[in-house]
Design brief:
The structure holds two protein chains of two kinds.
Chain A (H helix, E strand, L loop, with lengths): L8 E4 L5 E6 L11 E6 L6 E4 L13 E6 L2 E6 L8 E9 L3 E4 L3 E5 L1
Chain B lengths: L2 E5 L2 E3 L5 E8 L8 E6 L5 E7 L6 E3 L7 E6 L4 E6 L8 E9 L2 E5 L3 E5 L2
Parallel strand pairs in B: 2-11
Antiparallel strand pairs in B: 1-3, 3-8, 4-5, 4-9, 5-6, 7-8, 9-10, 9-11
The chains are: A mainly beta, B mainly beta.
Chain lengths: 110, 117
Amino acid sequence: QSALTQPPSVSGSPGQSVTISCTGTSSDVGTYNRVSWYQQPPGTAPKLMIYEVNNRPSGVPDRFSGSKSGNTASLTISGLQTEDEADYYCSSYTSGNIYVFGTGTKVTVL
Amino acid sequence: EVQLVESGGGLVQPGGSLRLSCAASGFTFSGNWMSWVRQAPGKGLEWVAIIKQDGSEKYYVDSVKGRFTISRDNAKNSLYLQMNSLRAEDTAVYYCARVRWSSFDYWGQGTLVTVSS
């Protein structure tokens, strides 16, 4: 049950695109299309942004997109906006109804 | 509107116990798996436990197995986390979350548990 690996930080200017990686193993990300992404502004509860690799819940802007290749999933924010500044976490289902989160990435809008 | 409201957090000494509650509303509580997720101060999210709709299946992160027990009362639309033998490293904000699409689609505001002498 080791945490998934994310870069500590990424940054971009308004309007640019940024991509956050989430690296797991063949026991989690590599086997299951059950990767989700969460946005957490400071002092608030996490919010679901992407589920099952590349699906957006109702109300999430289409600037947010997800993908997966092998043991690595990715979240891309296109057309970066100031309100996108937050911590982002990935999560994956693993075998036996166990879940694991990523280490978290701080997104800074320059 | 889906709402999850946690309660029961507080200051407890090492080795002590605490019971967290999560009151759910705005959806059919008995229709969803439910989970607890925690976040130590200044740290990342950590999945803690999950329970099936009827309570027949429960799963835990290794670090809390044998010490924490997740349960639910569908008649009261409530989720619980009984925490025993608490350690300093259990200090965190504990979130209640609804499970859907193998993800956590709604979260409560969290309740802070501090384990310290």
